[in-house]
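Section 5: illustrative case.
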Protein backbone atom coordinates (compact mmCIF):
# COMPACT_ATOMS: atom_id res chain seq x y z
CA UNK A 1 0.00 0.00 0.00
CA UNK A 2 1.39 3.37 -1.00
CA UNK A 3 0.36 6.26 1.20
CA UNK A 4 0.94 9.95 0.81
CA UNK A 5 1.00 12.58 3.51
CA UNK A 6 -2.36 14.03 4.43
CA UNK A 7 -2.60 17.64 3.42
CA UNK A 8 -4.14 19.95 5.93
CA UNK A 9 -7.23 21.56 4.51
CA UNK A 10 -7.36 25.27 4.72
CA UNK A 11 -10.44 27.20 5.53
CA UNK A 12 -11.98 29.20 2.70
CA UNK A 13 -11.08 32.55 4.25
CA UNK A 14 -7.42 31.45 4.42
CA UNK A 15 -7.48 30.69 0.69
CA UNK A 16 -8.84 34.18 0.08
CA UNK A 17 -6.05 35.68 2.19
CA UNK A 18 -3.47 33.63 0.25
CA UNK A 19 -4.81 34.97 -3.05
CA UNK A 20 -4.59 38.53 -1.76
CA UNK A 21 -1.04 37.79 -0.55
CA UNK A 22 -0.15 36.57 -4.04
CA UNK A 23 -1.66 39.69 -5.60
CA UNK A 24 0.47 41.85 -3.29
CA UNK A 25 3.60 39.81 -4.04
CA UNK A 26 3.11 40.07 -7.80
CA UNK A 27 2.33 43.78 -7.64
CA UNK A 28 -1.26 43.40 -8.88
CA UNK A 29 -2.40 45.19 -5.73
CA UNK A 30 -0.39 48.08 -4.34
CA UNK A 31 -0.43 49.69 -0.88
CA UNK A 32 -3.37 52.08 -0.71
CA UNK A 33 -5.31 50.27 -3.44
CA UNK A 34 -8.98 49.58 -2.91
CA UNK A 35 -9.94 45.90 -2.89
CA UNK A 36 -12.99 44.74 -4.85
CA UNK A 37 -16.27 44.82 -2.93
CA UNK A 38 -17.38 41.83 -0.86
CA UNK A 39 -19.90 40.91 -3.53
CA UNK A 40 -17.33 41.21 -6.34
CA UNK A 41 -14.76 39.15 -4.40
CA UNK A 42 -17.31 36.43 -3.64
CA UNK A 43 -18.26 36.24 -7.33
CA UNK A 44 -14.63 36.34 -8.55
CA UNK A 45 -13.58 33.58 -6.13
CA UNK A 46 -16.84 31.57 -6.25
CA UNK A 47 -17.18 31.66 -2.48
CA UNK A 48 -19.84 32.92 -0.08
CA UNK A 49 -19.88 36.50 1.11
CA UNK A 50 -19.55 35.11 4.64
CA UNK A 51 -16.12 33.69 3.73
CA UNK A 52 -15.10 37.00 2.19
CA UNK A 53 -16.28 38.88 5.31
CA UNK A 54 -14.30 36.47 7.48
CA UNK A 55 -11.14 37.05 5.40
CA UNK A 56 -11.59 40.82 5.50
CA UNK A 57 -12.15 40.73 9.26
CA UNK A 58 -8.91 38.82 9.78
CA UNK A 59 -7.03 41.14 7.39
CA UNK A 60 -8.40 44.20 9.20
CA UNK A 61 -7.56 42.91 12.68
CA UNK A 62 -4.04 42.10 11.48
CA UNK A 63 -3.48 45.59 10.13
CA UNK A 64 -3.27 44.55 6.47
CA UNK A 65 -6.33 46.52 5.36
CA UNK A 66 -8.44 49.35 6.69
CA UNK A 67 -12.12 49.60 5.98
CA UNK A 68 -13.90 52.86 5.28
CA UNK A 69 -17.62 52.26 5.91
CA UNK A 70 -19.62 52.85 2.77
CA UNK A 71 -16.45 53.24 0.69
CA UNK A 72 -14.55 49.94 0.79
CA UNK A 73 -11.50 48.04 1.98
CA UNK A 74 -8.03 49.39 1.24
CA UNK A 75 -4.55 47.92 1.65
CA UNK A 76 -2.68 49.88 4.29
CA UNK A 77 -0.02 52.35 3.16
CA UNK A 78 2.99 50.17 3.88
CA UNK A 79 5.65 48.75 1.64
CA UNK A 80 4.74 45.60 -0.28
CA UNK A 81 7.37 43.75 1.78
CA UNK A 82 5.79 44.83 5.08
CA UNK A 83 2.39 43.70 3.81
CA UNK A 84 3.83 40.34 2.72
CA UNK A 85 5.33 39.81 6.18
CA UNK A 86 1.97 40.59 7.84
CA UNK A 87 0.16 38.24 5.47
CA UNK A 88 2.72 35.47 5.99
CA UNK A 89 2.35 35.81 9.77
CA UNK A 90 -1.40 35.49 9.37
CA UNK A 91 -1.09 32.22 7.48
CA UNK A 92 1.63 30.74 9.64
CA UNK A 93 0.58 27.87 11.87
CA UNK A 94 1.33 28.10 15.55
CA UNK A 95 1.63 25.10 17.84
CA UNK A 96 -1.01 25.28 20.54
CA UNK A 97 -2.59 22.40 22.39
CA UNK A 98 -6.26 21.68 21.81
CA UNK A 99 -6.88 21.85 25.56
CA UNK A 100 -5.48 25.41 25.73
CA UNK A 101 -7.65 26.44 22.80
CA UNK A 102 -10.79 24.90 24.30
CA UNK A 103 -10.14 26.61 27.65
CA UNK A 104 -9.70 29.97 25.95
CA UNK A 105 -12.78 29.48 23.79
CA UNK A 106 -14.87 28.55 26.85
CA UNK A 107 -13.65 31.60 28.73
CA UNK A 108 -14.68 33.92 25.90
CA UNK A 109 -17.91 32.13 25.05
CA UNK A 110 -19.39 32.54 28.52
CA UNK A 111 -19.23 36.29 28.24
CA UNK A 112 -20.20 36.20 24.55
CA UNK A 113 -23.40 34.32 25.41
CA UNK A 114 -24.20 36.89 28.08
CA UNK A 115 -23.71 39.82 25.69
CA UNK A 116 -25.53 37.99 22.90
CA UNK A 117 -28.57 37.56 25.15
CA UNK A 118 -28.57 41.32 25.79
CA UNK A 119 -27.68 42.58 22.30
CA UNK A 120 -28.99 40.06 19.76
CA UNK A 121 -30.96 41.50 16.85
CA UNK A 122 -34.00 39.75 15.37
CA UNK A 123 -31.98 38.91 12.24
CA UNK A 124 -29.17 37.42 14.34
CA UNK A 125 -31.75 35.47 16.35
CA UNK A 126 -33.17 33.96 13.15
CA UNK A 127 -29.67 33.07 11.96
CA UNK A 128 -28.79 31.47 15.30
CA UNK A 129 -31.99 29.40 15.21
CA UNK A 130 -31.29 28.22 11.64
CA UNK A 131 -27.68 27.32 12.43
CA UNK A 132 -28.78 25.46 15.57
CA UNK A 133 -31.37 23.47 13.61
CA UNK A 134 -28.73 22.45 11.02
CA UNK A 135 -26.39 21.39 13.82
CA UNK A 136 -29.05 19.23 15.45
CA UNK A 137 -30.08 17.70 12.10
CA UNK A 138 -26.50 16.68 11.25
CA UNK A 139 -25.97 15.17 14.70
CA UNK A 140 -29.29 13.30 14.52
CA UNK A 141 -28.06 11.70 11.28
CA UNK A 142 -25.11 10.35 13.26
CA UNK A 143 -22.58 12.60 11.52
CA UNK A 144 -19.90 14.75 13.09
CA UNK A 145 -20.99 18.35 12.76
CA UNK A 146 -17.65 20.16 12.89
CA UNK A 147 -18.53 22.97 10.48
CA UNK A 148 -22.04 23.31 11.90
CA UNK A 149 -20.62 23.52 15.44
CA UNK A 150 -18.25 26.25 14.28
CA UNK A 151 -21.13 28.15 12.63
CA UNK A 152 -23.22 27.86 15.82
CA UNK A 153 -20.48 29.29 18.02
CA UNK A 154 -19.77 31.99 15.44
CA UNK A 155 -23.46 32.98 15.42
CA UNK A 156 -23.35 33.45 19.20
CA UNK A 157 -20.19 35.55 18.92
CA UNK A 158 -21.76 37.63 16.15
CA UNK A 159 -24.83 38.20 18.32
CA UNK A 160 -22.60 39.58 21.08
CA UNK A 161 -21.91 42.45 18.66
CA UNK A 162 -18.28 42.81 19.77
CA UNK A 163 -15.91 42.80 16.75
CA UNK A 164 -12.78 42.18 18.82
CA UNK A 165 -14.37 39.17 20.50
CA UNK A 166 -15.33 37.85 17.04
CA UNK A 167 -11.80 38.28 15.67
CA UNK A 168 -10.26 36.43 18.61
CA UNK A 169 -12.79 33.61 18.32
CA UNK A 170 -12.07 33.27 14.58
CA UNK A 171 -8.38 32.79 15.33
CA UNK A 172 -9.13 30.30 18.12
CA UNK A 173 -11.58 28.32 15.99
CA UNK A 174 -9.17 28.23 13.07
CA UNK A 175 -6.46 26.75 15.28
CA UNK A 176 -8.92 24.25 16.76
CA UNK A 177 -9.98 23.02 13.32
CA UNK A 178 -6.34 22.51 12.37
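Designed sequence:
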Amino acid sequence: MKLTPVRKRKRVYQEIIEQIKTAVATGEVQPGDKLPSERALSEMLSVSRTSVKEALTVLKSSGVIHIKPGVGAFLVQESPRQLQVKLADLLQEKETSIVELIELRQAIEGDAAYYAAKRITSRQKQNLQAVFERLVAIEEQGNVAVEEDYQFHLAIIEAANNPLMRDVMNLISDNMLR
